[in-house]
Request: fold
Amino acid sequence: MAGASSYSGMVDKTFWMILGSSVIMLLGITATMILFMVKYRRSRHPVASDIEGSATLETLWTVLPTVLVMVMFYYGWAGFKVMRETPKGAMPVTVQARMWSWSFKYENGKQTTELYVPVGRPVAVNLESADVIHSFFVPAFRMKEDCMPGRHNHAWFQAEREGVYDIMCAEYCGDKHSAMLSKVIAVPADTFDVWLERGGGRPTGLKLMQIKGCVACHTSDGSKLVGPTYKGLFGSKVRVTTNGVEREVLADEDYLRRSILQPKADIVVGFQPQMPDMAGQLDDEDIKLIIDYIKRQ
Amino acid sequence: MAESKTGPAWTGNYLQDYGRRRGLMAWLTTTDHKRIGLMYMMAMFFFFTVAVMLGVLIRLELMNPGMQYVTPRVYNSLFTLHGVIMIFLFIVPGIPAVMGNFILPLQLGADDVSFPKLNLASWYVYIAGAVLALTSLFAGGGVPDTGWTFYAPYALRSGSNVSLAVFAAFVLGFSSIMTGMNFITTIHRLRAPGMGFFRMPLFCWGLYATSWIQVIATPVVGITLLLVIMERWLGIGFFDPARGGDPVLYQHLFWIYSHPVVYVMILPAMGVISEILPTFAGRTVFGYKAIALSSMAIAIVGYMVWGHHMFTVGMSDTARRVFSILTFLVAIPTGIKVFNWMATLYKGSIRIEPPLLWALGFVFLFSIGGLTGLVNGALATDIHVHDTAFVVGHFHYTMFGGAGVGLFAAMHYWWPKIFGRMYNRKRAIWAWGIFMVGFNVLYFPMLVLGIMGMPRRYADYLPRFHTPELISTVGSWILVSGLILMVWNLIRAIKHGEPAPANPWGGTTLEWQTTSPPPQLNFAVAPTVTTGPYDHTALRAAAAKEAQ
Ligand code: HEM
Ligand SMILES: [Cu+2]
Ligand SMILES: [Cu+2]
Reply:
């Protein structure tokens, strides 16, 4: 049975093995209970026999389950081993998670919000989070690993068939946890190579803000979402709370930079300190492009 | 005549007031383990009802894709409250606090627990914790939305009122520890003459193993929760990487407690089943020692498996393997119990009564819970189902189908003893049947959903998950109908039921030797023990004599 990823077949084999023996055991237990209930009910079997135990039987049902669960452990371990051994030469992609969006960064600097991968080539994902814990889950590939703030987890997969597969966040991360979705798009290897070359280099300010998920909480049209709008922001006076003290500041370049890198330093009055700090996810040049974009709104 | 109602000479039962105080005050100041058990029951019943309603609301929102009735923020608070109440206020105190308090001293042939005042104090600590938890809903930054696990760093950053909720859980822990210490001492010191450890009823063994876990594991979570509060208030970086802390450390500390605590829920329920089966099979239990010692084995091995909740956090691969193999080891003593229970029915003389049906319901549902646990224990498969609806299905089968149904079985078994009245048999069987159908219609689709890849704690979902979600919601309505019928039948019995004899089911343990309901000091004549707990020979001889 060919799965969507190189190891999904192995995982499914483990599923069938465990679920199969479980169903057999459950049916066995249930059937035995019902049989005894019918056969030994008081009207048919008025006098009970006291059987205190049986060394043979008890040994049997200690040893057999032990063997069975060790086999299950082995299957689980064998499938897991494959998942953890990233093949040499796998294409590295950095997966960046934040409340509440995903972005993907390729070796040549290309950044996207959907994960394009070549069919038949291994992809090594390097998992990062800017704020709380998220979890990178691609059900069709049978893969999942958490994106932990402050550490780098790794995993790998290889798509076996062209197609579009769901990415979902599997670790609870707040309001829009269930909307933290994206897709893996598996394309033929040569198409992928062309695609990757085309979009190399640094994205524009607006593109960056889409990729990094800024637009999920901020608008440029004056409407207020989770965070304040960019419209008319630059050069205006903003009321913020700094270390618990309310004050008014001028929204200049320094202020914007601080708001991106240390969003918890000044909290705009009327909003929650919810923004992830983007220090690890944007470099100086990116930030300059974004500030230029905000200036123009 | 009121004045004469004191001391062992008085022949009334514990439900009647005696001594100086009357009515409500008499209950609130009582040190009688039976009354304290009932006070726990009333408080827990209240919280259970609230949390069931929250569960039904969760299911209602999930009936169709898209947001229908609540915002995602409210949904997140719903499952947090549902989980926190179910875990900390209902199922952890659960059987020990209600049935342990009521039945343990009776089964040991004792007047009361070792420390009756501490027992009352632990009830008040429980109530204080519950009040704090409720306050956290209405005071401050809003209803907590972290999930019952309070994972860092989300729980450290959420604007909602997490500190108070966490503090409430901390306080509730003390109630657990106090009850645990009380039971351990009682079991060591107050067994009737002649009752060695291996003549003790298996329910007492279950409570004994449970109490040790409560005393040893609860302080760990207490400290962890305090660290969370310190981090939130003082900004000390224990768990938030932005302050130099480690979120994985939080998860270790949390699960070092919270895994063993699932055995706090289940071991007493297993004890209940081990009481009910011999009684209704009319024979001795099969493999007494194996059942007793497997409780201890589960308690000990269960300490070392917490990492199976963390297979995807990025622990070293070796650690993941060790936790996986240890997890499979816990399955073995659990399996032994199930096989011994089935063998207890073999060549019995079985009477089909509501307590037996609930006990068999337990075996069925808990088997599904245990077997799905194997999927979680195996590494390759857990990576896929971790944090999905599969896990939600799995733990409802174990905690609700196991510990919850164990409590219902205990209530049907001991209700005549507690209130001195029989409930309606037919209605009880109907309630059981509806409950069992509803339960599986509600939770089985969750197992399917998880394997399909539906994550848990999702306020909304992709259209491809719709059918099983819809079926599950319908199941919640069926289940609740069964629950309502069950509760109504039991409550009605208190006033309108037929009077119950001392030993309505033909039980062999000591609680059946005293009247129903028991007198204030439990036994008119202090019992002595000369046989094992499930020796039916005397009862059988009496029945044979009557038949002649
Ligand atoms: C009518 C009965 C019940 C219904 C309809 C119900 C339904 C649910 C559902 C749908 C969820 C998943 C929420 C999500 O992942 O988005 C859930 C979570 C949960 N339930 Fe229940 N449940 C019921 C009874 C119980 C009982 C009796 C217990 C405990 C003994 C329990 C303990 C929990 C816990 C601990 C969670 C996890 C909360 C979290 O993720 O933080 N539930 N319940
Ligand atoms: Cu999430
Ligand atoms: Cu666990």
Observations:
- Chain A touches chain B through 81 residues (CB under 8 Å).
- Helices of chain A lie at 8-39, 55-84, 189-198, 205-211, 253-261, 284-295.
- The radius of gyration of chain A is 28 Å.
